[in-house]
Amino acid sequence: MKNKPYRLRCVFTLPLLLLLVFCGAALSDVLSPKTPETVIGDRTPGAAPVEGALADGKALDGVFDEPAWIDFNVCRILYDGLTAREKEAYEALYEAVLAHRETVYIPMLSSQELGNVHAALKYDNPQLPCISDEFSYGSFGTLCYIKMRYGYTKAECDALSEAMIAAARSICAECADRGDYEKELYLHDALVRLVNYADGGVNANTAAGALVDRQAVCAGYALGMKLLCDISGIDSCIIRGTAENETGAEAHAWIVIKIGDAWYHVDPTWDDPVNSSDKNQLTHAYFNIPTAWIEADHRDFTLPKGIACDETADNYFVRSSLFCETDNWRIVVKEAAGERFHTLPFETELRFADGALFDSAYSRLMDGELNKVINELVRENGLEIERWRVSVQMFRSMNCLRLIISEDEG
């Protein structure tokens, strides 16, 4: 019985000691000169407020004040869709990434809100390729702290951004004097020809993977396209969802782009002939398509508030007169082929209005109708071609065909 009070004291004292240890660890993080921090919205526990600063010394003050090396407009549609508290956290994290800080204190957010902020930060800002997909977080009173992880030093991150932006500028310079549609088409084609689809690279999920390493997965393609659009002054936004391929559904990212007053889906990853060694064989099956079309194999996505993709005027096939709406598709095929038939090999793409028309046309083309069209073109153009070879690439979910016609010398 004499030991009972002592035991009771131990039961209550041990949690208190653990709390003091935790507080001391938190304060040591806060006060450590080795880990610069950004604080917004409240005071760091046990310390005075820390003034956040960009790499060039300018404060955000709730408005994005870019460093000198970002001299183009960054379209931040995902930021615009956040709540006020989420925006506050986004701004602090953006500032921290620019300065390569590891610890950031923000007002308390739920894990879902933190996920919203992190996704918006990464996909709004392709010019910052060092935003990691991994971060840790915890809480202290009314504050949440974020521990950022960087795969590079600050100098390495700056050098990677510089190389990436230089590569993007070089591409954008080639179409600077064109209209927005023509710019977009040029940027899309240049990106698809440049990049190889490859998983596992350290930068594969970033614009640097696409534009510097030239190897990327879907997020890298989409971020690379967004950076090109940002530099060219075209509004765009990354979309995340799932996509159905031959192996089933998987997580996927693409982009929506504004041309004129309308928004369109663009998937540069799926316009890349992944299994082909000829990078000239890009496609436009997913270039400027409405939601009703892309939903055939892209799902589980939500467009940002105020954005609707329901127009077709600037779809590649509609604009290029390669859209077959009726049984008169043979005329479209012949005109499309005729415009490109002056040299072999050549290719053309077609989109059919619906699945039934696609199936009918494909069956007839493969049953000899395409050979008849080519025979007519050979005679009408006075070409001395006796044998030819036709390769067909089919995008069934998009009701698209890609025809490659070459002379058969065998």
Could you characterize what this model shows?
It contains twelve helices and 15 strands. Helix 7 packs across helix 8. The radius of gyration is 27 Å and the shape is elongated. The strands form four sheets. Strands 10-9-8-7-11 form a five-stranded antiparallel beta sheet. It has a four-stranded mixed beta sheet with strand order 1-2-4-3, with helices on one face. The protein starts with a helix and ends with a strand. It is α+β, with helices and mostly antiparallel strands.
List the main descriptive attributes of the protein structure presented here.
15 strands, alpha+beta, 20% strand, single chain, four-stranded mixed beta sheet, Translation Initiation Factor IF3, 410 residues, C8orf32 fold, 12 helices, 3 domains, five-stranded antiparallel beta sheet
The helix/strand order is HEHHEHEEHHEHEHEEEEHEHEHEHEE
**Intertermini distance:** 104 Å
* Helix fraction by DSSP (H/I, runs of at least 4): 40-55%
- SS-based structural class? alpha+beta
Average predicted confidence as pLDDT: 81
Characterize the main sheet. 5 strands, antiparallel
Strand content: 15-25%
Rg for CA atoms: 27 Å
Task: Name the shape in a single word.
Answer: elongated
Low-confidence stretches: 1-62
What is the overall number of helices?
12
Q: How many domains, as an integer?
A: 3
Q: Would you tell me which CATH topology of the largest domain applies?
A: C8orf32 fold
User: Which CATH class of the largest domain applies here?
Assistant: Alpha Beta
CATH architecture of the largest domain: Roll
